[in-house]
What does this fold into?
Amino acid sequence: MKDWLEWTLAAAAFAITVAVRAEVALVFIACGVVGLLYYGSLFRARKTASTTTSLMLGVPFVAASPDTLGAILGKLLTFFLKAGSLTFGSGLVIVPFLEKGLVQQTGWLSEREFLVAVAMGMISPGPVVITATFVGYLVAARLGGSLVDGFWGSLVSTLGIFLPSFLLVLIVAPILVRYRTNPNVQGFIRGAYAAAIGTILGACVLLGRIAIGDWLTALIALASLVVLFRWKVSNPLLVAATAMIGLIAFPLLQPTWVFVK
It folds into this structure.
């Protein structure tokens, strides 16, 4: 981020994400419009903006527990299609939306189960949104009653989370490339980019509220920040190392707040 407006938009997105505990679509649209007006050519002379980002954002989906495998898979596909097609920014931006839908609204996962799902996405190869695969498996196996149902749930969820991005690149990317030098387009993307950064920070706060429960987890979180900023260690390696610390410390401390027992 290069100026005061981007920092302001990021701070606003951060505050809203933490306050409502969800990613709000209108925040990205509003920040994009502000960026268009400020950086674009409508009310200002043309400026050069170099930042780009992917366009996607999320709305929660409410679903009741279905009775058949087909209904379960349909709910999962619909939920993750919405998540994949309506989410701005990088992988962690999707976390508030998933937490809102999976934990607060559908009740498919508890907060601890959701945290484990995000951790699985962090240590697995590929983007963080691979969390959808683990969530789909867990939900379908639980509601369907078998591991085979879990497999189909993971397959459908993975398809739902990635298909919108694939179609966006295939269909919309050529249009964006054609107009990438347009100052109004660049201004909108720059505003949405700032909102994405704020939302990612808000997602970190929401996850921290779930994951940090005692002095050890607080110390691990602080040490992880230092390691990331100082040595830029890869995320899977860092998660694996801290998981080993937890594995060793658990029988010694025996914390009562931890989900996995």
About this structure: Residues 45-66 have pLDDT under 50 and may be disordered.
